[in-house]
User: Fold these one by one.
Assistant:
Number 1:
Amino acid sequence: MKDKLKILLNGMFKENPVLILALGCCSVLAVSVSVSGGFGMGVALTFVLVCSNVVISLLRNIIPSKVRIPCYIVVIATFVTLVEMLMEAYLKSLYDSLGVFLSLIVVNCIVLGRAEMFASKHSVADSFFDGLGMGIGYTMVIVGMSAVRELFGSGTLLGFRIIPEGYQLGILTQAPGGFFLFGCAMAILVAAMAKRGKKFEPKMGCDGNCAACHSSCDDRKEAEAK
Amino acid sequence: MTKTAFQEYIKPIVVLVVICLVVSALLALTNALTAPVIEKNAQEEARRIRQSVLPDSKDFEEIDCDTEALDIDSAYRETNGKGYVVTSSHVGYGGGEVTVTVGIDNDGKVVGISADVSSQTKGIGSRAGERSYLNKYMGISGTAEGVDTIATATRSSSAVRQSVTAALNAFNTIKGGN
């Protein structure tokens, strides 16, 4: 049970998908202007991530490596379409506020990245917790950023007015404000981890993470040959 | 161990095809369950908008008319004779459609208007859907050509104006036919 907890916490802090792995940033920047929208996006992504991780882990010994990416995309797209249809039917207002970003979960790099990096190599239970941890990590970041952007940018929180009209930092609701905040959030997490004695090593180069890399190297050929 | 031709060429195709078939069946099932709910929601929403543009209105009946020739989407008559509601869409900026629903009383006067400008640029074109602009159409009759468009949001506001004019024309045609 302890290793499962470790996998769960891994996605939330040490390998936070958004702030450390820098995956799925576009939807975070775009949707984090209101807390309700951000939370909805986080839940939708977590659902897709958990389901696709479990299914891909179940099929990991059946899917031939030649067609693995198309298989992953089909599985992921299925769950996204499911969420989309259910949300349009039962949560219309959330569906309208998420707009195109809901469909774009299909190409969200977190989902595909975890399928390739984790689910295709680990057991179903581990993949479930990885998906859950990554999803919670994503949700925490997007909700946190939404709270700051909505409170100081629009002066409201969950739609209730907190700061009177005319005292807002309008830029926070725009794209540049999103980037500023995104950078600050990254810095805060790295600083917090450094304080706890965990050395932060940005994994920008190759660390065996073939999903995030577009080049072809000897290691990769070897891994694919196996 | 060398891979057999089956493993090399046939298996990937079979696996992918089977996965696609299974998920298609799953999605078809979900669609069958949710499509009626989505359809019902859309109708509810349309009815709510119609009620909001025509004061004291309750139920509506659709008027059978040549919507294409009239350049409108749909026309409804209030069942108690309170007036008419006409919906019309025109292309605004960037190819996105602006859908306008106009409530017209029996004298041909605009008594309510609602515009869906979600396809227009937020903060610029979307101003054509704000109350302060839409209120300029209240009370007009015959044509909307006299209402000014918004500078810097010309195309979005022109789409609104075109739609209102089309709605008023449609009203005259329908009324004249009665």
Number 2:
Amino acid sequence: MPSDDVDVRILRRLRRSTDRFRSALALAAEQVRGMLGPLPDASEVAPDARPLGRFAAGRIDPSAFARLVTRAPRDDAPDQDLLLAAFHTITSLLERGDAAQVVRVDRGADLRDAVGRALTDLGRAFAAARLVAPSTKPAERDPSLLQALPFARWNAAERELAPPLVVHVDGADLQADGLAEFLDGSLLVVLLVREAAPPAALVRLVTPGTYVLQSDAEDDLDAFARHTGPGIAAIVPGECARFVHDPRGGAGLGDRLVLRHLPDAPPRTALGARSARQQAEELLQLAVLAQEPPAALAAAGAHGTSADPIDVLASWLLGRAGLGKLEVDA
Amino acid sequence: MPTHVSAPTGPAEAGHDTGRIPLHGLVELAEHTLEVVSDAGEGAQKCGQGFGALSARMGNGSWTVEIIPAEIQPPPRTPGSASGVRIRIGTREVTNWGDAAGLVIAFNEQVLLSRHRLDALADDAVILLEKRWGESDDPAVLAEWKAALEELSSKPYRIVLVPLEEQTLTVVDNPLHGKNMFALGVLCRIYDRDLDRAREQILRQFKKKSRDVQQANVRLLELGASWAKENLDFQIRVPPGPEKGPMVVMNGNEAVGMGAIASGMELCAMYPITPATSVSHYLGDVFERFGGIVHQAEDEIAAAGVAVGASFAGKVAFTVTSGPGLALKTEFLGLAVMTETPLVVVDVQRGGPSTGLPTKVEQADLLAVLFGQPGDAPKVVLAPATIEECFHCMITARRLAEALRAVVVVLTDANLATGVTPFPRPVPQPDWQATAPDGAPVAQGGKPYQWDPETGLSTRFVPGQPGGMFTATGLCHDEKSAVTYAPHVHQKGCTMRSRKLAALQSTLQPPDVVGPDSGDLLVVGWGSTKGAIEEACERARAEGLSVSSTHLTFLSPLQPGLRAIFERFRRVMTVEINYSDRVGDPFITSENRRMGQLAWLLRAQLLVDVDCWTRVMGEPLRPGQILAGIRAKFGKGADS
Amino acid sequence: MIDTACSLLGCGIDPHVELPQEDYEGPPPRWCPGCGDHGVLAATQRLLHDERLAPERTVFVSGIGCSSRFPHHIRTYGFHGIHGRALPIATGVKLMRPDLAVFAVMGDGDCTSIGAGHWVHAVRYNLDMVALMLDNNIYGLTKNQTSPTTPQGHPSNTQPRGSWLPALNPLSVTLGITNASFVAQTADWVPGHVYATLQAAFRHPGFAFVRILQRCPKWTPGVFRAPAQQMALTEILVHEDGVVEPEVEQYYKTHVAHDPSDLDHARHLAEESDKVRIGLFYKNAANARYEETRRVPVHTAEDKIRLLEAEFDRHAV
């Protein structure tokens, strides 16, 4: 799948994490190549002669040299077939380049499944590494994982190496809470949201160590990219709420969460599987988390349990419009 | 019309050393040498390099070498400001810079004078000289001009005055930005170069400049060519050789840099030193794209230390230096030998001792590399003989360093470093590259110097490998790397480190002999002199002398079978660019005569009475000069 | 820290396994009884244990001198190099293997005399490593020669009528170097402080320079006798961001409040005084680290070949 300009642009902003992942793959590929020794290839040069280069041609007897320096492989070394399978898995993932990190969610399809599939696919690199790593006991080598290693089975170190993903999804399919299970290690997910979207879908993902960003500006991804833990960002249409939850902000939630924009009016219609009420709940939750003046919410009846959240939201939004502009990114 | 200042020389004679140029018409030559010289900053180098590249593209062999002024901004119109290029082109591969130039374009008479004084010009050379200085209103300039032409008249040069600047000013306002392209046009006409290719090349060369600049340069090229067509009455054709397949063109330092990349090395630790630095200029530009780093250390010592540390940590690193830097690295090279840390050292040799001749060639460091460390410090020493080998030997060097846990020194020199020649485009292989250590645990009881008693070889432990923890040390140590001064431990360690070289030698093959495999004289060379030596020997054989040559690429260990080869010749003589006493000089006897460096080595190693012929003129050997030396050994003519 | 120097092949290994402290101990040292090196070694072994450093991922580099035998007595990877050159070797290790924990151990002659050039530049490179300078004011191994830190007037075998020159102040020098990141001083007669300083140095992301004052029982037993015997002469720099060791602060009552981010005050405190000041003089974790600024993504052999072909295209005729 060829990458769009936007994918290239966004992955460039996330290059630090991508480099970390691809470097780990490349280093592993070179380690496995070392275990494999010279592979058969189309060249006419004998395998023993190839590592010595052309300067050695006619000057060093390659087989005599090979006899001199070749050592018996370790007893517990993986066999050549496993090494080759691992090598090809790693290098083929590397060759896919950006495409392996771009997910396109078909209209009406499940966001969680699509992201999960991409990670399962990338996980094959870890499966390949486990297959041949010196620390893996021979009995634990499982070639079947080369086909798929779901995120749920990635260990902590693997989750730290996770590459960033760019996900194209319709606003109507933005069931972001389904992604909570992937927000671990250093995985960064950028959602590029098409068309109308729920105003605060990502609010359900705010946890103390997770960077959560809703924005309409790609430039905000630069700060996002510098985060060292898990993170999720959505580039949303202008009418959605805009906020950032940066774990580096401080100990208190108020220090970390900055509300930059709220919609003028509450959502009135369902979007995909999300009812208007659910969308309103998310917006209210954002307001609560952002510690909007409690009085304002109280006046709007937010502490009441029976009121329709849409009404609460509507009157609160109306009220705060009179209070003046939102604080812009302190 | 051009003015003929001096009398024309005789008719052309094809096959002559320098290719004599006829007064009229077209001559076809197998090879020819020309120079472009100007004040520094006037662009002669660009013109000459462009001509060399164009010739290579047209299928000629070519060797381009820079003429470098001693200062960065020397005063203009002085012999010291001569800057430019010598280009030797041929139908066959060109392996050296040749003897004297048969044609020169000079932007003023003073830079021309410097070439004359260095004997760089053939007696019958055609000189295309900028004419404006002879028409100067400044009496001082006129006086200089007259004096220079007077001095030049000692040789029967044919001087043609060229309105370089006058013509250039018809296209551009600033002649500094254009005379060289006009000159290139003149050369294109004289040597019958393909103007379309030349245009293409200029557009490529100026691709970052504006369209106006590109077009102006193309117009100057065309103007030069048409001026030459109307005003010069001779042309020289050096036909291209047979199709050679894809070729690349670069200098030896770029080749070293690319070879380092192709070998999978990831660190070049260096400190600026002429003439080695341009390796790091090249790598500084491109290495990071390949995942590599050029680390400019605080000094030569640290550069070696950083490379040793990186290699200890599992990445084979290299350092690049020249004589004075090599001297400073001495202790670290000993440490790398003692700890058996793989290390590649590229020594781009220059004139010594001390600061010596920083920009000039000398095969100065062979013995320093072999014996520079206190105690016994066996190393592998390779000497590429061509620019192509500068590329390929880096792959071998890296491999040997790692496989033998050894220091591998690559001896190139200023001649290879600055020479530019086309060679077959390498086809890089994954197997050329270093692989990454796999971090596998070390088996119980494994020792960091578990020397194979037969070969002295052992497996390197790299940080990250569980169970392999050890402390490398420059102190005398046993197989566990434990420091001990017990009587037999040092003997054993020295034996094992030395044994590695013998083991490597057992896999080496004898060098080829070029020419008959027995005869009166065998010339033995090493390093960058190969092309000049083989050309000289070929010419000597054509004169009926019984001369063959062999060229050593492994200096440590030496290739096997040398004694057997030497025994087939009545005399054996090294030809080198380093100092030796001359027989017959005051006080010099066969007992006290100090020899060329390879001659010392061969005599000591093989007990053969190896003679030597060496020069330290700060320039590459000229084939004609070697030929004179060979003739003299046969009692024919005087040595140069 | 996970970075581009990590391989997937290491993902299965738990990097923080707790090992018994004996697992960090190499063959016992043969330093003189009473030598300060013993205490530093013990504190270092404890640090490795407490910080759960994997022995195979830790490298101790040293130069030449008594203190440079250090790596032989620690069961990690080690490189006992040449006189004055520990820092270039350590630089090479850390630059190319940022995944390794690197310590450089030097003596005063090693660091401030023959290796002074490397010292200046290692501070400037600011690689993430710990550099220990075990300063006993004398060349011990070669038997009593004056070092740059030998007190003026102190006799030695090379300057028997007393050192001619005023002693070099390594703290002032280090604090004057551009990009200085962590500069601390501790003393062998305050063992708890040695450990706390090592820990702060190890945890600091950058080049952590620690000067450890110690006595050579053979040649300089008297140099720090006064501060070692009179607690009031040892002044403790205290600050919540500094070296924090409550027990030491309790026993040593002479405190100086010093914010380690205050470089001017640090330079002032580093000046010679009749008291010995120990603690963290300066800390700045924001300085760029060389192994980070120079980091480049790893490429496979096939990748490099593709790129090389493009290089050949540029040089094609």
